[in-house]
Amino acid sequence: ACLGAGNYGAVCQAVDISSGEQVAVKRVPRGHCSEMAVKDETSILRELSGSAPHRNIIGLKGVYADAGAWYIVMELARGRELYERLVTQGMLTQAQARAVLHQLACAVAHLHAHATVHADIKPENVLLHEEEEDNAAASAEQRCGDGGSGSSGGSGLSVKLVDFGSAFRVGTGPPKRKEWSYTAVYSPPEVVAGTAEASAAGDVWALGVVAYILLLGVHPFDPSGDTCEAEVLRRVVSAEPDYDDPAWDLIDAGAKDLVQGALNKDPALRPTAAQLLAHPWVAAAAAACTE
């Protein structure tokens, strides 16, 4: 069964014939990207699955190749794309949005602590699992409060960050330029304007865009949903989101503060992912599962 498509190839469900385990396999045709790009992606995933695993980051099982393609074998995560959930069922509650953002901030802070930038954070690259049908024993395994274990915060939701096709390690090789990173409308203004390269601060910007979407149900620079990409990118560089929208009156002031910080035009003034994780509004999601 086809589960979706990443930056360079389709992802399908398969079975490991040696163990019977269900897995996800990303097939990357050799003509779609360079061998170096595949090695970069799998090297990052291998580290994150081995010496630095995290419950909110997809795990790598192995890498294989034949004459026509590379095959990246990953854990089969439960759930569906966050984007699909929003389109088919509408907005999350504030408590659910906070739990999702807490787990994403956990994952991204973990990446940055290991000198890795994701560079393509968006709802399509977040798998969301709603745990209402899980049994109580599985729910009891949820842990919170440590940097390596982003919990559901009592929300019944768990997330995994996927698709590391644009990810890179900080300080290795040439800087990552815009055409190698980000989906355009999640790109930070410094990358759109060409004044800076992709960076950890760009991941924080993308988290801010995702947060805005989760809380208000619209893109901060395309609230109508039908603006052309060029105009959206112009707004990313030179306009501010509508923080006077009456919809904000129904949202916790702490959530608005978090979004405004993450969407600061100046990357030097944005909080780090670790600071987002410690933000009182986000941190309350971790506290919720201990009450």
From TrEMBL:
Gly residues bias locations: 145-154
Binding site for ATP: 26
Keyword tags: ATP-binding, Kinase, Nucleotide-binding, Serine/threonine-protein kinase, Transferase
Chain spans, region Disordered: 132-154
Record-linked InterPro entries: CDPK_Ser/Thr_kinases, Kinase-like_dom_sf, Prot_kinase_dom, Protein_kinase_ATP_BS
Superkingdom of origin organism: Eukaryota
Pfam families assigned: Pkinase (PF00069)
Residues annotated as domain Protein kinase: 1-282
GO molecular function terms attached to this record: ATP binding; protein serine/threonine kinase activity
PANTHER family attached to this UniProt entry: SERINE/THREONINE-PROTEIN KINASE
Name the record gives this protein: Kinase-like domain-containing protein
Species classification: Eukaryota, Sar, Stramenopiles, Ochrophyta, PX clade
